[in-house]
Write a structure and sequence with these properties.
By secondary structure, the protein is of the alpha/beta class. The chain has two domains: 144 residues, Rossmann fold; 218 residues, Rna Polymerase Sigma Factor, Chain: A, CATH 1.10.1740. It has a seven-stranded parallel β-sheet with strand order 4-3-2-1-5-6-7, with helices on both faces. A four-stranded mixed β-sheet has the order 9-8-10-11, covered by helices on one side. β6, α6 and β7 form a beta-alpha-beta unit. α6 packs parallel to α11. It starts with a strand and ends with a helix. The mean pLDDT is 97. The structure holds nicotinamide-adenine-dinucleotide and magnesium ion.
């Protein structure tokens, strides 16, 4: 019997690569549902190609158009439609490849139903880490990361004895602006920021990689996935993106996970877990790579990593506020309404204004997300 897979965010960078992984699975994976934000045409095309009968679009107008153009199945609409898709699709496994905190609702729905979750949407863990992991534990659903560094750590830690791990290290490429001073970052353009040296990804995470906010989000992701305290999770800059993660052991040995950068590897790992499946990716030959280099993060030039760590340690709604402000600021930067250095400035000011509050239920998070978006939007507006 094939594993029944639901792909949320199927039209994006991770989503389309996941479809490629499914095509190479030799029938072990079967897609039973697909969703997108508003790009209905590619979504309908995917549904036709895969023979899928149920799709969802978060945007109601896009949903209406899809329903007009595609009559071979059901089109669910709006954030509630996404949740309905999760609950009603009969999936064994959901891949959440939605971008941003919009992914939290579907994450909660999946784990709440006790369905295994392959999670690319790291924002779910950043925003709702404690509640999300508690929910997985309560229902017994498996939570498998889809992120090169976390896949590395997940794989490295499988089978280690209890008490063996001393420290986790995730690598950062450093993004397109590695080596630049703060002053040199003032005038960078959107086009330059989108030119990532090693990975080809969606727009939001590419900007997060240029500001290093992506590593801040990933430190929180690692903390929630592995239960490791923040002071034992480090980031090191590694421009070649060959080493993805390291686990330092209590006896002084370190385990590293290596490979050419290709997200189909982490995607396939999560979709086939706990089995393994072959993939025709480029093989690593160290003599061809020659040199691997490492350097510390320049936190003066890239304050987003510091802001993320501070929010993580503050806890409560602070990571949710940080994430929402970041989404608003990145969007504004991509639209040409905010300079690059305005991104950390807007986030810092939003955090200062809203502070942190305890999280009692998911509703506190949705409320904090809304308030942070409003505050950050006002701050962006005030700067122009
Ligand atoms: P993307 O922008 O390429 O794709 C995002 C997908 O989500 C699209 O299908 C889009 O239609 C959908 N979407 C957008 N807004 C939505 C909304 N409000 N509601 C529902 N669906 C919505 O993004 P991506 O690069 O594929 O990244 C997806 C997630 O995976 C992000 O959380 C990112 O951090 C994470 N991730 C991506 C990569 C990568 O290589 N691209 C690597 C590691 C982690
Ligand atoms: Mg990553």
């Amino acid at each position: 019997m094939p594993r029944r897979l639901l792909i949320l965010g199927s039209t994006g960078s991770i989503g389309t690569q996941a479809i490629d992984v499914v095509a190479r699975s030799g029938g072990e994976l079967e897609v039973v549902g697909l969703s997108a934000g508003r790009s209905w045409e590619p979504l309908v095309e995917q549904a036709r190609a895969l023979g899928v009968r149920r799709i969802a679009l978060a945007d109601p107008d896009a949903g209406a158009r899809a329903a007009e153009a595609w009559t071979d199945g059901e089109v669910l609409v709006g954030p509630q439609g996404l949740v309905e898709l999760v609950v009603s699709s009969g999936a064994d496994l959901v891949l959440n490849a939605i971008v941003g905190s919009a992914g939290l609702g579907p994450t909660v729905a999946t784990l709440g139903e006790g369905i295994d979750l392959a999670l690319a949407n790291k924002e779910s863990l950043v925003v709702g880490g404690e509640l999300v992991t508690a929910l997985a534990e309560a229902t017994g659903a498996r939570l498998i990361p889809v992120d090169s560094e976390h896949t590395a750590l997940h794989q490295l830690m499988a089978g280690l004895p209890v008490g063996a791990v001393e420290r986790l290290v995730i690598t950062a490429s450093g993004g397109p602006f590695r080596g630049r001073s703060r002053a040199e970052l003032a005038g960078v353009t959107v086009e330059e920021a989108l030119r990532h040296p090693t990975w080809s990804m969606g727009g939001k995470i590419t900007i997060d990689s240029a500001t290093l906010m992506n590593k801040g989000l990933e430190v929180m992701e690692a903390h929630h996935l592995f239960g490791t305290p923040y002071e034992r999770i480090d980031v090191v800059v590694h421009p070649q993106s060959i080493v993805h993660g390291l686990v330092d052991l209590v006896d002084g040995a370190s385990l590293a996970h290596l490979g050419h950068p290709d997200m189909r590897i982490p995607i396939a790992y999560a979709l086939h877990h706990p089995e393994a499946a072959p993939l025709p990716t480029r093989r690593l030959r160290l003599e061809e790579v020659g040199r691997l280099t490492f350097e510390p993060v320049d936190v003066d030039a890239f304050p987003c990593l510091r802001l993320a760590r501070e929010a993580a340690v503050a806890g409560g709604t602070a990571p949710c506020v940080l994430n929402a402000a970041n989404e608003v600021a990145v969007h504004a930067f991509l639209d040409g309404r905010l300079p690059f250095l305005g991104i950390p400035a807007v986030i810092e000011e939003t955090l200062a204004r809203l502070g942190t509050e305890p999280v009692r239920a998911f509703e506190s998070l949705y409320e904090a997300d809304r308030r942070a978006r409003r505050a950050a939007a006002d701050l962006v507006e005030a700067r122009v």
